[in-house]
Specification:
This protein is of the alpha+beta class and 485 residues long. It has ten helices and eight strands. Helix content is 63%, strand content 17%.
């Protein structure tokens, strides 16, 4: 009894294992949304686009470096035993210096320096009143532009231009990703069309085989001529050849889709979604409004106008003279006793103030005037470009919309033609069964119905292609998928 249980268990295990292996070796099936999502997660093009965006984004951090804080430090020690011509300076001297300074440009355009220094001098000269001498100095220096770059005008606008340029670069990378989405979706529907064509050819092969089987029996009993027997056999071979060629074409289409998805080449895939015609309900005016709101080239053109406007403001400011307000404050203390000297600094008993104005006025100023005129032309160029982009959008959206509407009408007509061809074939087959039709007529009608079905598939494929192209022109494909940029 146990032996029988063991044998039955082994058989069940064998079938289970075989079923698991069969499932593992099955082709991976994707819907169109799953295929696009997989491509976005694994495609090298998307990864490169994201890296390009991140590299461009670092330009903002680089531009902000103008406001970075810098710390400067210095230490030095010297010992002087050189012979001199006078006894006043002494025969030996020691000097130690410490210096620390912080430099910072503020958003107001102000250059500020805050420093501290400590110097210790010793000499064997008898003519020095304080020996050793410890000197501590605290100082603050500031330089404030009053005309050119007043309140950091130029510095902040340089940063603004960089941010706008990065925004435009981000739009370029989004365009690349959306191009991939469109390419994957078009490849998906091409594979779906080939898959449907294979099904149609396989169905027509079965019909051709059924016809030949009937003719073979009739030929054996002498009910039909040899020419009908040969014709039906040739028809079977022709349909079989068509099916084999279409299978190879389907494999090529799936291979293209796998490449775009960056899917493992050693594994097979299948498309799950089928070509289904849905009548569109959208007007050209609605499409144009969506395009104006979403087209990235239009956004880039508008951003470029802002960049040129800010550049013009900067070049206008650069024509002004350089007038800088300079200020400096120092406090120090000198004593042989370190603690006593430090108290003198804290009491602010030894101070130095300086306030001044520096003016730099170019006489001809050709460089600034030339750059200002160039910026004026640049802004005008940007305004003309945005008008050209508007015309381009109207043309491209109009062309894509008309193609979309055309293929919609064609598909509806092709479906009707295919339905009529099917009815015609069914009636002719009935006539053949009653002996009132020839093999040639049935084969011709089969071929006409086959071509009609393939025309429907091709029409629906073109319809899907035109839909994807229209959505690409509207720049709405990317919004369906969460893509980090």
């Amino acid at each position: 009894m146990n032996i029988y249980k063991f044998i039955i268990g082994s058989i069940l295990l064998l079938f289970t294992t075989t079923d698991v292996i069969a499932q593992e070796t099955q082709a991976k099936e994707f819907s169109v949304n799953e295929a696009i999502t997989y491509a976005l997660e694994n495609s090298f093009e998307v990864h490169l686009a994201k890296l390009d965006f991140l590299m461009n984004e670092t330009d903002i951090q680089i531009s902000e470096a103008i406001f970075d804080t810098f710390l400067y430090g210095e230490y030095s020690y010297s010992e002087d035993n050189l012979q001199t011509a006078s006894d006043v300076t002494g025969a030996e001297g020691l000097q130690t210096n410490y210096n620390a300074q912080i430099n910072k440009k503020l958003v107001t355009g102000t250059d500020v320096s805050l420093g501290y220094s400590h110097n210790r001098n010793w000499t064997d000269s008898a003519f020095v009143s304080v020996n050793p001498a410890n000197e501590d100095t605290l100082y603050v220096d500031a330089k404030q532009p009053m005309m050119q770059n007043v309140l950091g005008y130029l510095d902040r606008r340089k940063l603004t231009i960089t941010k706008l340029a990065v925004d435009n670069a981000g739009l370029d990378e989004k365009d690349k990703i959306e191009d991939l989405i469109a390419e994957v979706e078009k490849a998906y529907w091409q594979a779906a069309a080939r898959q449907e064509t294979v099904r149609i050819l396989d169905d027509m092969l079965k019909k051709a085989e059924e016809l030949h089987a009937v003719n073979e029996k009739n030929y054996d009993v002498g009910r039909i001529e040899k020419v009908d027997f040969i014709a039906s056999k040739a028809n079977v071979l022709g349909r079989r050849n068509d099916l084999e060629k279409e299978k190879v074409t389907l494999k090529n289409s799936l291979a293209t889709l796998k490449r775009l998805m960056n899917f493992d080449d050693s594994m097979d895939i299948m498309v799950r979604d089928k070509l289904i015609h849905k009548t569109p309900h959208v007007t050209f005016e609605e499409c144009l409004k969506v395009a104006i709101d979403n087209r990235r080239d239009y956004k880039k053109a508008k951003t470029d106008v802002k960049i040129k406007e800010v550049t013009l403001q900067m070049k206008s400011n650069e024509r002004w003279p350089e007038v800088d307000l300079i200020g400096s404050l120092k406090m120090n203390g000198i004593n042989s006793n370190l603690s006593s000297m430090t108290k003198m600094v804290e009491d602010n008993s030894n101070t130095y103030y300086y306030v001044g104005v520096e003016v730099n006025v170019p006489i001809e100023n050709n460089d600034a005037l030339g750059n200002y005129k160039k910026a004026q032309y640049g802004k005008e160029h940007a305004l003309v470009w945005i008008k050209d982009v508007e015309r381009k959008i109207i043309t491209e959206v109009g062309n894509a919309y008309r193609d979309y509407m055309l293929y919609n009408i064609l598909v509806e007509q092709l479906i009707e033609v295919s339905t009529l061809q099917k009815q015609k074939l069914e009636e002719q087959t009935k006539q053949f069964d009653y002996g009132r039709s020839s093999t040639k007529d049935v084969i011709d009608y089969q071929r006409e119905y086959l071509l009609a079905q393939i025309e429907v598939v091709l029409g629906m494929y073109n319809y899907e292609q035109s839909r994807v192209e229209l959505e690409k022109q509207l720049n709405i494909l990317l919004d369906r998928y969460e893509v980090f940029l």
